[in-house]
TrEMBL record, chains A, B, C, D:
Its EC number is 5.5.1.4. One of its GO terms (molecular function) is inositol-3-phosphate synthase activity. Pfam families: Inos-1-P_synth (PF01658), NAD_binding_5 (PF07994). Gene3D superfamilies: Dihydrodipicolinate Reductase, domain 2 (3.30.360.10), NAD(P)-binding Rossmann-like Domain (3.40.50.720). The keyword Transmembrane does not apply. The keyword Isomerase applies. This is Myo-inositol-1-phosphate synthase. InterPro entries: Myo-inos-1-P_Synthase, Myo-inos-1-P_Synthase_GAPDH, NAD(P)-bd_dom_sf. It comes from the Bacteria. Residues 226-331 form the Myo-inositol-1-phosphate synthase GAPDH-like domain. Keywords: Isomerase. Belongs to the myo-inositol 1-phosphate synthase family. One of its GO terms (biological process) is phospholipid biosynthetic process.
């Protein structure tokens, strides 16, 4: 069967959010030729399923239709949302798993009305199957774009093996977060799973092992879009020139729902942890003065600003500074990466390559590795690995 | 003979300048353990001649001793210059080739008192030989750090073949610039030649061919230190993420002698030309709005500031901006690269690899290529090429 | 007659430009309550003619209707231009005075078909009178928003006295620029005249004297909107704290028609001259290293960016730096000032105060003074002078 | 007695700190003509006591001599500290009042060995008297430059009246902070008191009233040096142009002891409160999105960096941004203001003007007012008030 004829469904956790609606609107606009391929890194790769063969569905705590949601997010101008309107309106968010213990600031009424963890898992699995059947899909991939959750204690035994995890599900163990419910449901539905958020999900040992056993591709975590992406570009260059990084101060201001969620200290803590180790790995030594701030600042809406200051020492101990101000757009940077990830985990599944997809580190702040080892963070090396995999 | 015992002489054109005196001071401080290896990219490569085996000499229009010159440049604090004082004071600049037709703002009294081109060539060659003999050197490498010259008409027949060039020397043809005199003298003395300036020099067809015939390594041109270096780091990353560069505005303010020289429109024009094509090659398309400004601004002295603004288009045609402010130090960035180049062309000569050294593109804004083709500009690819050559 | 009933006509030179169309659209939107009073400094002053009593007309080399022009300028989003559409479409640009000797890059077909200077003057005067009669206006004020002209030799005798100027008109003396034609026509029509451009106009001695004799208010020149406005805010503060300004580097990037005009060196020179003295007057001493660059850079359109770097010396000779990046909008800053100026010169005329309006220095980069002396530039002092005049 | 002959002692709380040692070194260098008057706003006012008539003493938890302390702070280069060495070394810090309840991170061994509050007060008073007698001073002024303390509950009755405060002293009430001990001792010694820190001190009602009753000038609080100073320059300008401030994001990075102290949440909270209201008062409305961050970041040492981003709305609701990056030097900005304050409170005492010195608001982030009302914050208005007072 040719690529053109295959149909891949993308079931998004948080389908009514800014990133998801931007991604879906983008596909609609591509279909009608109303936009180009800017921001899509693998538009030139013909072996992947075409963008226009992607079909969307997904869960959201907010049951509003996606056209309305897209207007509210304000990422795209009204006329753009209108142009993509039919495609957006066609997606009705399915009821979602809610757990205020894991994400206080994410609330909504469109909730799966089941309290047992096993019941929630089965509900999510049936959503996936219904989606597959209704749309005549060759494959469903699940992408997590939900709000950042706090992390549970990741050392608990329940998260270490598939067996312990199954038992924890049946025991309604509170260690199991909504993100884990979705990941588990996806893996056991043989649906590739992508975690674009910082939440603990398919990257826990129990689920990595399960994905490996079942041969289901899993990928994550935390999309590398703005400031961290730049960090993994600049730090390798400073290392290349032997300019020593004495300190790196990063601040972010953003005014979208993501920013609001991060006003909760627990969510922020998950986020900051995924940002932490990147720099040291790129440089090969520990930067003692690496400070990262994220502040909710409403005037910007989705138009994030990331300001970095870097203190360098060069030849003869002389000091220099670099300041980078990135006036970026959170969802505009993230949405095309989500589309590429959907195509790439589909490709991995076609190749029969299950478990942690290390070659997709290019997309993530904290790439998961098969053995839990420290991943490569330098963007150009990640790209070379991925291109080599694609060329294979 | 072991590396430790080899002695390599570095004969610098413009030895009294800020970059040269910083490089020489650096070696002195390394010798006494008063500084580290920051800024030296290949400090880890043990196959190269050790830094402390480099011995310095060179030409300058200003005959002042180098300790005095270093104080004047103000790159290093007085106490640092004093610590390196003996080594600096030991270098007495040799009379230099002067030609106001090529560089109006570079003046001085320490001039070779010969008017014929052939006579000047012979004088420079005898300087090299005297240096070799006096210091007991295993090899002399010549490095051009002189002020930027205007470019002659590079299409003139005299610059196309070794034979035509020889004839032009004998005819005192004004097309032959001081930089060409040094390059020709170096090549015919079997001394590897590095052009760290934007001037037309060993990169003209006549001299490239001559270097190839004689098996002498030549390398250049225009050291890639600050803004352009950053450009060749960032542009490949934007390309990697398919972020389209709509425009790139670069301004530089600097207050050292380099800046003063560039107040002359002819010198500035040479400089801007070497900066021009970098971006388009890194991106794979032409950036129509690429503006580069260099302004002399005294308050900064050697502490250059490079401010870049980049306009990007991402997914769905949405606009973003990146601003980079690099508070750098011109000579501090350049000096260690000069030291590495001296070691690397020595290595090439040891390997018997003459002609254009393409693997050294990592160091230059406009790397010379054997066939005159467009060179690679992306810093990480240049580094990979060079590391592979070193590992060979 | 109450203010509410008075009608003031604003005849704009360059009525199809970005600033004029933005100002006119603004009045339309104020009339329908579709915008607030942001950017209008004297919205609280009830003694001035209300914004909504302003009626617009004017000259332009481009005869297109203003709704079309506003769409092309791209200052306002399409839906805003549409909301103001009726008012914009109602203004049909009158044929304008063209002289390529004075502004090479401003071209168009909507030209007064008269070659004698006196004939052009009479034509402009008849335009003003026709406007007054057709709209039933109590007063017409003329505002110059045309493209920057090169300066003639301002020391020529023809520009020194009203008599010499009259003779020059009759002799078709090429010293008389289009801006002078408009200014002379306005003054002799008893219409207050505002020069918002850097061109030499009513500020020449001949016209200042004529305005004084006839009791007609004249005001200018060169609207102080973005970077220079900030300079006149920051410099007085540095002076207040005795922080010595060692250098001030200013660069501007803009992509609108203004920017294109300034690609012509002659126009640029006029512009830079009006920017020059501001800083020294604010500080009380000469800043030797004051550099101002303006570059045409298309990706920005009307969204100008002004980047300033300031080098300061503080206590004990210690150095500091301030960098200011103003992502401003040229026409959005200028248009409301134009509206206020129209109201304020109308007020001056009502008070019977003719000649140079020194109290309006608040609006200009180079405020004209009665005696040709150095004006006050500090924004807060200018504001205090103007507020005192208003309270009088 | 002429000014030249008067001697004023400056007793500094925190005399070994970076600001104090910089101020003292400055006076030494002025005495020997080794520096100019940069940074000293009132160098032109001849009626004040000359800088060189100031004599220094003071308290510090660290008993080290000041030359050593100045070297450690690293504000001034070693050769500058050496030039001022004799004057610095002559100042031996007196034992200081310590209370870890108020400032956890400020520690040291040079402590007044008395536990009762009354005993500490008496000790401080005897220090003042001894200083006065030993140096033959006409007046002693006390300046608080100590580390920021947490605030007590400022609504407690003990802080409301002189009588209640006296009783609290005798009862060893923990509400009495070290800063209050110094302020009370100064006032009851008839020594003018300046609080350059954010700590609660002479600005509590009890001490304001006491100072008023005894006719002792008191002044404060929290020196306005870098970011807040700029805020009180820019905000009035935005107001002047009717540019609405939608949000103001301020971040500070600094690596000196001040920064370290502010890592303690309680001290930071005091600091942030003094920064808060400034903006709203300057603008005349509440900025809902005003965020201020202060982060300890070692690579900078005393070379603070303040980055501000301001979101503005202008004409027709169009959005603009201003970014200000102030690479300043904390102690270099503060020290000259401390010297001016010492001279100005001496002048107030000579004039017999006791109580809160409202005319000194120019120097402070949170100027104290006689009636507790909201003070003026706009820098230029503060300067005009102070200049008028000086001219009086």
């Amino acid at each position: 069967m040719s690529d053109e004829q295959r149909k891949v469904g993308v079931a998004v956790v948080g389908v009514g959010g800014a990133v998801a609606t931007t991604a879906i609107a983008g596909i609609e606009l591509l279909k009608i030729g109303a936009c180009g391929y800017e921001g899509l890194p693998f538009a030139d790769v013909t072996s992947l399923v075409p963008y226009t063969s992607l079909t969307f569905g997904g869960w959201d705590l907010d049951g509003d239709d996606l056209a309305k949601a897209a207007h509210l997010h304000g990422v795209l101008e009204p006329r753009v949302v209108e142009a993509a309107g039919a495609g957006l309106a066609a997606v009705a968010p399915w009821p979602a798993v809610a757990d205020p213990e894991y994400c206080r600031n994410a609330v909504g009424a469109n909730v799966i009305p089941i309290s047992s963890v096993r019941g929630r898992v089965d509900h999510v699995r049936s959503d996936i199957e219904r989606f597959r059947a209704a749309e005549g899909l060759d494959r469903v991939v699940v992408v997590n774009l939900a709000s950042t959750e706090r992390w549970p204690d990741l050392t608990l035994p329940a998260l270490q093996t598939p067996e312990a995890f199954e038992a924890a599900i049946d025991a309604d163990d509170p260690v199991i977060s909504p993100s884990m419910v979705y990941a588990y449901a996806a893996i056991t539905s043989d649906s590739p799973y992508v975690n674009f958020t910082p939440s603990a999900s398919a990257d826990i040992p129990a689920l990595l092992e399960l994905a490996h056993q079942r041969g289901v591709p899993v990928s994550g975590k935390d999309g590398k879009t703005g400031q961290t992406m730049m960090k993994t570009v600049l730090a390798p260059a400073f290392r290349s020139r032997s300019l020593h990084v004495d300190g790196w101060y990063s601040t972010n201001i953003l005014g979208n729902r993501d920013g609001q969620i991060l006003e909760d200290a627990d969510s922020l803590s998950s986020k900051l942890q995924t940002k932490g180790t990147v720099l040291d790995q790129c440089l090969g030594y520990e930067v003692e003065d690496h400070v990262v701030r994220i502040d909710y600042y409403r005037p910007r809406g989705d138009q994030k600003e990331a300001w970095d200051n870097i203190d360098l020492t060069g030849f003869l101990g002389q000091r220099m500074q670099v300041k980078v101000d990135f006036l970026c757009r959170d969802s505009i940077l993230a949405a095309p990466l989500v589309l590429e990830l959907a195509r790439l985990v589909d490709e991995a599944a076609r190749r029969g390559e299950g478990g942690a997809q290390e070659q997709l580190g290019y997309f993530f702040k904290q790439p998961i590795t098969r053995d839990g080892g420290e991943p490569e963070h330098a963007l150009y090396r990640q790209e070379q690995v991925l291109r080599a995999w694609l060329d294979h």
